[in-house]
Design brief:
single chain, mainly alpha, 2 domains, DUF2959
Length: 215
Amino acid sequence: MKKHILMAIVSTSLLLSGCQSAYYGAMEKVGYHKRDIMVDRVTDAKESQEEAQEQFSSALEEMQALLNHDGGDLEKAYNKAKDEYESSQDAADDVSNRIEKVEDVADALFDEWQTEIGEISKASLRRNSESKLRETKRSYEQLVRTMKRAEGKMAPVLTAMKDNMLYLKHNLNAQAIGAIKGEFASLQTDITGLIKEMNKSIDESTKFIASIEGK
């Protein structure tokens, strides 16, 4: 059986069982180590943030179109904005899930690394490995801080979107739209700030992947 097919089977069966330690052990048996998994998960988290950036920008555009509504089908414009809000919530959930997966494999990798350092008999090699572990941890901690900072900015944006959607749901008319226009400027600022933080996190992800791969 080809390696990538075996890896897919192992990954699916063990992730469904929810046993991460068994998953890591099984993947290692087919030559796929925690370091490899970490690179993949950081890459996935990076991609999910890129997708979330696009989704929040799209939601902002649809809300702007709704607020600038000029007499067409108001219900249709509202539904499009609502769909974009819901997609933004899904994108935010995906980002959070991806970050959790990065944290899980990082804990497993660092625990294993620390344990195996103790098994190195030659002092110079042990010191070198300890130094590399500290360096990787520092880089990882910086990565997680930027990821979490970006993640934290999603919640208030989603809350503001939800407030607007719920308000308009029961007051879908020109007067109600006019009433929330003042909120829109603040929402624009918040989404701009969110995208900026996500860019930082994406850049930090790229740097971390390069460092852990030795590039």
